[in-house]
Specification:
Blueprint (H helix, E strand, L loop, with lengths): L2 H37 L17 E19 L3 H6 L5 E20 L2 E22 L2 E21 L4 E22 L3 E23 L4 E17 L2 E17 L1
Antiparallel strand pairs: 1-2, 1-8, 2-3, 3-4, 4-5, 5-6, 6-7, 7-8
Length: 249
Amino acid sequence: MSALGLTGQTGVKAMKRISFAALLLLALIGSLRFAVAADLEIVKAPPFVAPPPRWSGFYVGINGGGGMGPTSQTLTVDPLIALLGVSTTGNYPVSGAVLGATLGYNYQAGSWIFGIEGDIDWSSIGGQVTAPVMGVPATFETQLPWLNTLRGRLGYAFGSFFPYITGGGAFGSVRATDSITIPGSGNVLGGLSDVRLGWTAGAGLEYAINQYWSVKVEYLYADLGSDILVLDDVKFSTHLIRGGVNWRF
């Protein structure tokens, strides 16, 4: 056998060995990848859970709604009026809108929430009645130009919902106007206003949109008592339904 033939057989054997080694290496790599993949667990990202609402802290907001209720103007009984035989005007309704600003603070202990809240509202609540005075037509009008409350709040949070009761002081400007039509002389007008201190109580429900913003709806009864304006003992009270938006900071 020639040297050339030996050399060719040796080369073929070497190529077979290299091919076998390559196939063995590929099989080893494939088995390692399969083993590693089998040992790996598929980890899913945990679902997003929003943090619970933060009720504690200061907040500011706006509120608006409407009010209605009874008022009365009773002519004071002094000797002159008694001699003239003037009758009383009695009760009549008032109604109108309110719009204003709110400032408050909440303290949360577990699910219980203790707070204090103040607000001041512009008001168009008012009403009038026409009644005879000594046979002469007369118009009696009562208005509430503004209303301010300072109240405590107590409630229990159910997640994003916060129902509460509330009560405290109410301060408002009550104005009474008398207009009497005297034949041959036209109208005689008299009007006075005063700032009164009364009380208010009610309940509401607030809902937290997120950590900072919330919306609410509430009912308040406000009683500003009675006082003498012009010649009248004027009593004033109102039922308020208001909505609001608050921002906590």
